[in-house]
Amino acid sequence: MDKLVIRGGRRISGSITASGSKNSSLPIIAATLLNKNGTFTLHRIPDLKDITTFTQLLRYLGADIAFSDNTLKISSRNIKNLQAPYELVKKMRASIYVLGPMLARFGHARVSFPGGCAFGPRPIDLHLMAMEKLGATITIKTGFIDATIQGEKLHGGNIDFPVSSVGATGNALMAAVLAEGTTTINNAAAEPEIETLCNFLMAMGAKIKGTGTTELEIEGVKSLDAIEFHNVFDRIETGTLLAAAAITEGNITIHDVEPEQMKAVLKKFVQAGCTVDTTENSITLKSQHKLLPTDVTAKPYPAFPTDMQAQWIALMTQADGTSHITDKVYHERFQHIPELNRLGAHIEIHKNQAIVHGPKRLSGTKVMSTDLRASASLVLAGLVAEGTTEVLRVYHLDRGYEKIEIKLNNLGADISREKYNEF
Ligand code: EPU
What is the pTM of this model? Predict the structure, then answer.
């Protein structure tokens, strides 16, 4: 297994280009299943473990895929297999994204039921409800979701989500674009990743109104084209790199980003005492003074994202006072806290809120990654900890951060990747 060995105390400074978004790549790749005869060229796809896993799933279904230099060429012309097996789905919950497009194109799909995850229950009831509203019959047997439609095609329907779900909105969109008639989605997720999916589907020929809002209207079309598409930047990678500069009293410029999508996060960095300047496509952050304690509440977009919650907690261990970090999306996403406390932080958990008492001098030791963003928070802590921090089970980090130690080393960090055996 790999671990990251971080020698702390170095300032992060310099400029860097953001990678493409992981969480928009996944639904876009799934949406290529909707096309019968062409080849897609997708640019700015990050080279990540999750992308490898997802392309492995699409290959298993029958897609032809070539991936190099962040460009993915994919054709779903020869899909033969309509079943997503447990072995692949268990590696990544986002595998559920194949359900909507397969059902829309073939009228049938079988997807292994995804299990729990490191930060609590993650149900898929809303995905299934959306498919049923569009005319699917769902049965769950022997660990599989079996979705079928009676006639030739799905039909339009009114989908009213009781809670905002990125994945269920994505699946509903991908099913509705080829359905007969009009579909409305109320309380749709408005995350930039869903807006990007809408833009992608519209470029294929889909008819969608309300892109970027919580009310979507989709008029089904008969077929969709294969296209060339440029993916958007990864706003969570960007936020994590900004936090790396903020926690080390550094300064950073990140290029090829859309600052507009990061308003809630940038506002919090300013409140925490950092200077933030933006242009149309770059963000510069300088952190020269002691950080100020800053409360955040993670909620659906456009609020502060849950995927930045763990990193913010790490940052606040260095702030001069007490901060409250509440997660209203995932109430149990706090596996990083015991590990941060092992580094010397003083963080308490009350229900879905972390109370961070700063500033605390952190000192390096071995810590364990438990999920993607938890790992990112441990890396941030390692950057300011005295001595050496070893972040174990770094495969979690590799799911969602492209060349993270290379990027951070180019910005002044001292991180090496080493092999180790777990006993
Ligand atoms: N929910 C339900 N039923 C469902 C689906 C979701 O109750 O059928 C609930 C969830 O339990 C949660 C809330 O709805 O409380 C929101 O979950 P959502 O469906 O939006 O999450 P997701 O689509 O499974 C995506 C990202 C996550 C990110 C969340 C929230 C991808 C591949 N994953 O997950 O990203 O945390 O949205 O923004 O896009 C990450 O990148 O580290 C990550 C976990």
Answer: 0.98
